[in-house]
Every structure is written in structure tokens, then in C-alpha cells.
Amino acid sequence: MEIMSSMCLLLLLLFSLLVASALSANEEAFVGVNIGTDVSDMPSPTQVVALLKAQRIHHVRLFDADQAMLLALANTGIRVTVSVPNDQLLGIGQSNSTAANWVSRNVLSHVPATNITAIAIGSEVLTTLPNAAPVLVSAMKFIHSALVAANLDSKIKVSTPHSSSIVLDSFPPSQAFFNRSLDPVMVPLLNFLKDTGSHLMLNVYPYYDYMKSDSMIPLDYALFRPLPPNKEAVDRNTHLHYTNVFDAVVDAAYFSMSYLNFTNIPIMVTESGWPSKGDSSEPDASLDNANTYNSNLIKHVLNNTGTPKHPGIAVSTYIYELYNEDLRPGSISEKNWGLFDSSGMPVYTLHLTGSGMVLANYNTNQTYCVAKENAEKKMVQAALDWACGPGKVDCTPLLQENPCYEPNTVIAHASYAFDAYYHKMGMADGTCDFNGVARVTTSDPSNGSCIYPGSGGRNGTFKNSSPLAPSSNTTASGCHSQYSNDHIFFSSFIVGLIIFWTVVSL
Q: Taking CA 465 as the corner, what is the angle to CA 460 and CA 468, rounded to the nearest 5 degrees?
């Protein structure tokens, strides 16, 4: 019996290693961001890309296939997931030619300049758009066929993001299974992912799991905070220890696939995050908790920790989201998932020590003041005149044949002058306004030999002798300047059950 038991354990170990090898496929985990656009003062695509580059963000997911955004992303090397919106899914799922036209317009016309690496077909279709469920797999196959015809199927993978609520009886993870009513869709869907070498896309929101648990889930467990061994959650069937909700959700999905005999499909988390602000009923939607969750999530993913079921296997994750979306309907928290506000300023300071090169929004010293691209040119010109006159900014670099003369536009010249004033005033509140035509950014606007005064961080000192820059309550000079130019962005985890388990005594 002991020999048989040892052989079984050895076979189980070998099987686990084979599965791990199939899942890993030499992948390195990455952290990306979702870019939503329900923003009242949405930055232009070029401004979005400038922020992505400044923050060293190399993976983004778009909720559509916006043409201007795809053009702005060209030649950046940033890996892009584009999406078929839910309102286009029925048409694509019912017509091969419609799918081919979508690929031609939104993919073929942009690659290889724009590095499109995945197409997400809809979003949480099975839980939010059940009438489209019967055509979901057809839509995926039609889009994939168009990629095959263009010889792009090995470069661009096709999948669809799911809410984690499709997983039932999820605690402990080892007993989890997909909602059986979805089997007619899930089985062919998983076969498609297996045959094409794609990922199962999953949206994971420990915040909602925590909120719906009625205090049964400890906040520390949701936020990746360290737990003492006797407080860790333990799966009584596998004896696997879980130290955070995120891993438990992912493993519940892995076990659900295993229940349907799919063991080699990797999981990619397409949305995860924590809101930084909420109303009185959401006290845990806070800056500190959002900071803690996203900082710990980034470190967890980039350390290639994997999950207890599949340690060391990449679980690449897209943070929800890049910008706070103030136009989103619903509660206050719905509008406050962003890492940045629409001006490009960090909403909070990430704690990323030791996490490697990803995101720079922990470095809030690197800020600049630039002119808004869509501002009225006469207002910008007046503000430029003020900065170079009463504002006492040294504008000689803007003169012809000097380093910052080109590009010879009022926006470029004003940006240099605004930034010079902003740093001269120690980046004090109200010194980057200029009657509403200026904004603060974390993207260094320096170009070529034109080095902006703010490049290099906080190097300005406040001088009381300098007049304050014109704000919405002051009037700037409107005289013609020597510098004038006539050309002139609901997942639910296992909520019905208690997630926090007692350590199993062996």
C-alpha cells in the first residue's frame, strides 16, 4: 500500500509539473492598465500615450477599437488589447463577413505599426448580455478566422472577459465549478481557447467580494496584507493555503476548468483594482486601501508568485483603470478607480519598492505645467504674454535660433513659459492655471535640445516678489507677443459562502 501510495503521489507530481509547463509557455507576468473614456475632460490620444510612456506602461486594454487611439499608439511598442463592444457582438457573431470587415478596419489597418496582441470579444457577456451568449463562440471563431486569413493568428489571440460570478460554490476553490447552465457555451469556448493557445480572461474584484461578505472576509485578506499562518484560509480538500482573495478567485476558475477536463488553459486577469473614494456606505473605498491593494497586486503579479494551485505560473493582470471616470453612472466609488486624474496627476502614491520597472506614479516630484491643446489660442497667447512679461519668466529660449523656438506654435511656446513659471513658484497650488488654459502633467514635455525647467524634479523655489500667475479671477494681458505664431481614460466572487477558513488540522 505504501508503494502504491508513493507511486500515486509521484504520478500526481509529474502531472502537476506537466500542467505547469503547459500553462507557463515561458511567459513572464505583466501588469497593464485598462483605459476607460467616460471622462468629462478626457485627454487627447497623444496625451494618453505620453502618460503611458512616461509611466513605463507597456500593456493596455481598450474597451473598443478607437481609431485615433490606435493611431497614437503606433510605433510605441506598447502591447494593445482591443475590444469588440457588446453592442457590436450580435452582428459579428451572426456574420463571418461582418467579423472580417471589423478585423480589416480595426486591426489590419493598424498593424504592425500598432502592436495589437489580443482581441477581447465583448465584456462579461454571459452575465450582462445573456441574449448574446449563443453567438459568443461564433463571434470568437469568426474573428479568429479573419486573423488566420491575414496570417496574424499566432500573434493576436482572441478571448472574452468573464465576470468571476460565473464560478459557483467557490469556497473552497477545489470544489468550484462554472454555472452548469452555461455549459453549452463554456465547453466550446474552452475548446476554442485550448485549440488557439489563448487565455481565459477573468475580471477579479476583491473589493466587491469584501463588500458583499458582511465582514466575513477580513479587509487584510482582500488587500494582500500579510496574515499570520493561523489566520490563513485553507482549502480543506487540497490543504492549499490562501493568503488573499485574488489568488482564491483565480484558483476557483482553474478548478472550474479542471471540472470540465480543461487543465492547460492559462488565466489572464483583465480587470482588477480598488476604488479610492466612496460615499458614506463605502468607507473602505479610500486612498489608502486603493494604494495598498494596487501596490500589493503589482508586486504579487510581477514576482511571478502564481497561485497556490499553480505556483510560479504567470497571472498577468490589467489594473482597472488608468483614469478616474467621472461620467460613469452609479455610486461615487464607480467614478474613482483610476490611478490618475484626467490631468495626468497620480490619485495616490503607489508603494512599489522592489517590484521592478512598472508605473512611475510613485514619483510625484516629476510634474510639469503645459498649455491645454484644446484651449482657445487667444487665451493661450495672452497667458504667454503675461508669463514672459509680468510673470518675469526668462523666455529667451523661445526666441528664433534658440533651443525652444521649434516647434514655433503658441501652444509649445506657452507650455515652456508656463512650466518655467510653475517651477519658479515652487509648484505651489494655483500656479499652473493661467485662466484655465494650463494643466499639470507627469509627462516630461522636453524635446530635443529644448529641456523644460521642470525636467529633473522639484527644482523651483517660491519667490514672494513674483506676481501670481493669472487664474480664473484675474485678467491677463492681451497684447501681441514677439512669440506669436499665426498658425497659431460587477465581478462577484463566491459571495454566498464564507471565504475565511480555519486552518485544517492534519
A: 75
Which candidate, 54, 58, 44, places its Cα nearest to that of 446? 54
E strand or H helix at 425: none
Name the pairing type of β-strands 438-441 and 368-371: antiparallel
- Residue 58 CA to chain centroid, in angstroms? 10
In this structure, what DSSP letter does residue 338 have?
-
Q: Which of the residues 2, 27, 28, 124 is marked catalytic?
A: 124
Choice among 24-38, 134-148, 462-476 with the minimum mean pLDDT: 462-476
- Active-site residue 124, yes or no? yes
Cβ-based neighbour number of residue 414 at 10 Å? 31
Kind plus residue range of the DSSP H or E element containing 311: none
What's the pLDDT tens digit per position in 149-199?
999 999 999 999 999 999 998 779 999 999 999 999 999 999 999 999 999
Cβ proximity of 370 and 439 under 8 Å: yes
Name which of 89, 197, 109, 123 is nearest 153 in CA terms: 197
CB 206 within 8 A of CB 218: no
Q: Is 161 helix (H, G, I), strand (E, B) or coil?
A: strand
DSSP state of 504: P
Task: Tell me the C-alpha distance between 493 and 212, whole Å.
Answer: 9
Q: Which of 2, 232, 271, 401 is an active site residue?
A: 271
**Rounded to an integer, what distance in angstroms lies between the CA atom of residue 193 and that of residue 188?**
9
The three-state secondary structure class of 467 is coil
CA–CA distance, 147 with 144 (Å, rounded to integer): 5
Residue pointed to by grid coordinates 511656446:
413
**490 residue type, one letter:** F
Tell me the three cell numbers of residue 146.
Answer: 479573419
Q: Find all residues with CB under 8 Å of 186, minimum gap 6, and list them.
A: 166, 178, 260
Q: Considering just the CA atoms, what is the radius of gyration of the chain in Å?
A: 26
Burial letters for 367-387: b for 16+ Cβ neighbours within 10 Å, e otherwise?
Answer: bbbbbbeebebebbbbbbbbb
Q: Nearest 5°: phi and psi at 121?
A: -90, 105
Cα 491 → chain centroid? 16
pLDDT tens per residue across span 125-141: 999 999 999 999 999 99
Q: Dig out the grid coordinates for 486 from the structure.
A: 499665426
For 336, residues 6+ apart whose C-beta sits below 8 A from its C-beta are 275, 276, 277, 278, 285, 324, 347
Q: Which of 148, 7, 30 is nearest to 78 (CA)?
A: 30
Residue, of 46 and 55, whose pLDDT is higher? 46
- What are the pLDDT digits (tens) for 310-327? 998 989 999 999 999 999
Residue 2 known to be catalytic: no
